[in-house]
Specification:
Number of strands: 5
Oligomer: single chain
Structural class: alpha+beta
Distance between the termini: 24 Å
Number of domains: 2
Helix content: 55-70%
Number of helices: 9
Shape: globular
Order of helices and strands: HHHEEEEHHEHHHH
Bound molecules: zinc ion
């Protein structure tokens, strides 16, 4: 099940606003240090801390897409180096979502996100063994990632200017095609 069916509409709008504020703050920090065209990784680093690629990222023998570690002196995000770039961006922004939404820094814990939980495809909805509250957190982090990577105003302006093409906009926003389509569908149906 995609995050859209697991997060309530009011909470989706709330997360959208939080992601927007977070991105704006990161862009302001980038300007302060004269970073003219910050990448997605730059923006997340300016929000959370170090973002590090790791090949065959695993935790307790599970293959991970992303890992947020707040146990050390400074928070760190790791992501799977062998994933496609669009997927990596979604995983990194998803971990940023946990950091911003779920107050993980104060708890000083590590949050491991297996490949199957970040932006799952529809058929992964069955046989969910996780506690509901954990599934909710994963869905919220997905919603944050989508909003952080594809800000509503920018996305809508771009579609108005160029017309809708999933391939073109997935390239422009550096996300996967399915992630882009999910975001666009949500913007069209739920957002005011
Ligand atoms: Zn997660």
């Amino acid at each position: 099940m995609s995050y859209r069916s697991r997060v309530s509409s009011p909470r989706m709008l709330e997360i959208d606003a939080i992601a927007k504020t977070t991105r704006k703050a990161a862009l302001a920090k980038a300007r302060e240090i004269f970073l003219i065209e910050p990448t997605i990784i730059d923006l997340v680093q300016l929000t959370v801390g170090l973002v590090i690629p790791r090949p065959n990222l695993t935790y307790e023998s599970k293959r991970l897409a992303g890992f947020l570690d707040c146990r050390g002196e400074a928070p760190e995000i790791s992501y799977e180096e062998y994933d496609p770039v669009g997927r990596q961006h979604f995983s990194i922004a998803h971990e940023c979502g946990h950091f911003v939404l779920h107050h993980v820094l104060a708890s000083g814990y590590a949050h491991a996100c297996p490949q199957s939980v970040i932006d799952p495809v529809e058929e992964d909805g069955e046989g969910n063994l996780r506690e509901m509250s954990e599934a909710d957190r994963e869905a919220e982090a997905d919603a944050f990632a989508a909003a952080f990577l594809m800000p509503r105003e920018e996305f809508e302006a771009s579609v108005q200017h160029y017309g809708f093409s999933a391939r073109f906009h997935a390239f422009r926003f550096q996300v996967s095609g399915p992630a882009l389509v999910r975001r666009w569908e949500w913007l069209r149906t739920c957002a005011q």
